[in-house]
Amino acid sequence: MTDIVAEMTNKLLVDAGIKKGMSVLDIGCGRGDLALLLAEIVGTEGSVLGLDFDESALAFARERFRENKLTNAAFIHADLNNLSLDHPQFDAIVGRRVLMYLPEPERVIADLGALLKVGGLMIFQEHDSTMSPGSIVPMPLHDQVNKWIWDTVEREGGNTHMGFGLWNLLAQKGLAVEKVRAEAVVQTPSAPFPLTPIVRAMLKRIIQTGAATEEEIDITTLEHRLDEEREKSKTTYIREMVFCAWARKFAL
Ligand SMILES: C[S@@+](CC[C@H](N)C(=O)[O-])C[C@H]1O[C@@H](n2cnc3c(N)ncnc32)[C@H](O)[C@@H]1O
Questions:
Q1: How many angstroms separate the alpha carbon of residue 96 from the centre of ligand 1?
Q2: 249, 113 in Cβ contact below 8 A?
Q3: Which of 69, 163, 168, 174 has the smallest number of CB atoms closer than 10 Å to its CB?
Q4: What is the atom index within ligand 1 of the atom nearest the CA of 95?
């Protein structure tokens, strides 16, 4: 998670109403980045339950919390597509970049609704490729690298336009959408994106899906080439739009 995205997430959680003492479910928690932010806000009076179907990500998250001596979170293995969770209702259910990977997100939201207290919050942050990349000066290498990343996600079945779908998804029976907003992830000549680490982390998937070849990527020189293009362009560049939305459960 980059600092800029962490900042957006933290602001989202606070603006939506996550507070000390709450019990929160983090769906598709991955390696626990969002759970860490949540654990800090809810404090020791509150609790976080991270849920994912990737055992290795869960093991990483558990170890991370153990190392940081954080005791207000637990992590469980479950598949959102086939959810059966025996747990008292939560004050909030939160997810980041997870709805985009679900084949039937409407059904999952409906299932999650049953796990939320009346008055409770559903809060989501989804990244969207629809209006990006954007710049006044051409940035062909940056555009190419972004395309590799989004193409890979799409070829794996991800919906890269989920941000625009958030309102429709949340405006379900029993949920009142309180806010949808979007913010751009922006690079300036003096503040680069960590694009190369993202490509490095996704390298196997990019090649496996055929979004690009190893030769096209040339990972050993990529950072240098991106830096050169950024420094030469002297431009501000939009990489992606981050949509944030929250809704509240009301009594039917
Ligand atoms: C892009 S990662 C985001 C991780 C985390 N929310 C974050 O923002 O750092 C998407 C996560 O959703 C999880 N995921 C996708 N589909 C899932 C499903 N059907 N059930 C549970 N977890 C799922 C993946 O295993 C992965 O950890």
A1: 8
A2: yes
A3: 69
A4: 6
- Rounded to the nearest integer, the mean pLDDT of the chain is 95
The residue type of 185 is: V
Residue 5 has a pLDDT of 86
Decide: 81 in ligand 1 pocket, CB within 6 A: yes
What pLDDT is attached to residue 181? 97
Residues 6+ apart with CB under 8 A from 58: 29, 50, 52, 75, 76, 77
Angle at 187 between CA 183 and CA 189, to 5 degrees: 150
Mutation choice for ligand 1 from 34, 101, 107, 112, CB with most ligand atoms inside 8 A: 101
Nearest Cα to Cα of residue 226 among 194, 186, 184, 185: 194
Whether 60 is in the pocket of ligand 1, judged by its Cβ within 6 Å, is no
Distance CA 42, CA 57 (A): 22
CA distances from 79 to 74, 139, 165, 168 (A): 16, 39, 22, 23
Q: Is the CB of 2 under 6 A from ligand 1?
A: no
Per-residue pLDDT tens for 208-246?
Answer: 999 999 999 999 999 999 999 999 999 999 999 999 999
